[in-house]
Structures are given as C-alpha cells and as structure tokens.
Amino acid sequence: MPRSLYTPRLSDHVVRALYREAKQRRMPMTRLADELILQSLDMSPTASCLVREEPPDYHAGPPDREAA
C-alpha cells in the first residue's frame, strides 16, 4: 500500500516565477524547485537526513513496474 505524502499547494505567483525561471534555465520546473528548496535549507542533493528519498532522474523514462 503506497503511503500518503503531504503535497503543499504553491501560490500561483510562485508557480509562474518558477515556470519562467525553469524555461530560462532550460530545465524541468520540478528540478528547479527541488534545487532551490535544498539550497534554502542549506542541504546538498546528496545530504543525508533521517528520512531521505533519492531525487528522481528527470531525464530517465518512466519507472519500470515489477510484475506481481
């Protein structure tokens, strides 16, 4: 059973700013948001913490599903 994660809603003006900046940098908006948040928390993408999921590889295809 998948766990439910908290998904915060970003303000419309923040989403628009992220969109414009991501287009300028030619990168996915989600990757830009991830990097900016990690920088503001003074964490590197590889920093360890109590609960840490690896950032997704935005250039890879969809994840493979294992056969049940």
The helix-and-strand class reads mainly alpha
What is the element string, with H for helices and E for strands? Answer: HH
- What is the 3D shape? globular
Poorly predicted regions are none
Q: How large, in whole angstroms, is the Cα Rg?
A: 15 Å
Compute the average pLDDT.
78
What's the total number of strands?
0
Describe this entry's structure for a reader:
The chain has two helices and no strands. It is mainly alpha-helical. The longest helix is centred in the N-terminal third of the chain and has 14 residues. The two termini are 14 Å apart. The model has no long low-confidence stretch (mean pLDDT 78).
List the helices and strands and how they pair.
Elements: H1 12-25, H2 29-40
Keywords:
globular; mainly alpha; single chain; 68 residues; 2 helices
